[in-house]
């Protein structure tokens, strides 16, 4: 099932993609510095940053389709929810031991991603599916 592209949803997806690229560059190129400031393992920072580039590409491709496929947006929303859940798990679990700045770094990302997911969900709800179109 697909729906006609909405400027609001398209813009939110592009902002999400841009934040992925910006965070990816920061985390990839600055993994050592970020790790030393936050007590987050440098490999985690590096690989989390690298993972954001293909995600940003998928978001960009999705946002630039003439008709945005609902399943693609749901995949993006679900991925964002998983990123937030993983962030919370890192902050409260025992897998890593971030310091206060590390908690702030992880928490700020989680809040930003949660807001973007909520905006993407709102964009989906604003428009009824176009009937008769394949997904």
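Q: What amino acid sequence fits the structure above?
A:
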């Amino acid at each position: 099932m697909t729906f006609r592209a909405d400027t609001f949803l398209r813009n939110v997806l592009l902002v999400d993609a841009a934040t992925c690229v910006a965070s990816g560059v920061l985390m990839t190129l600055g993994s050592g510095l970020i790790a030393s400031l936050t007590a987050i393992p440098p490999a985690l920072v590096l690989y989390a940053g690298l993972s954001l580039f293909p995600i940003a590409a998928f978001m960009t491709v999705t946002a630039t389709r003439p008709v945005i496929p609902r399943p693609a947006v749901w995949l993006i929303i679900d991925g964002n929810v998983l990123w937030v859940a993983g962030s919370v798990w890192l902050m409260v679990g025992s897998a890593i031991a971030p310091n206060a700045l590390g908690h702030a770094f992880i928490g700020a990302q989680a809040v930003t991603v949660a807001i973007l997911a909520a905006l993407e969900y709102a964009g989906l709800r604003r428009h009824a599916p176009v009937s008769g179109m394949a997904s």
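Q: And what stands out in the fold?
A: The first helix runs from residue 7 to 29.
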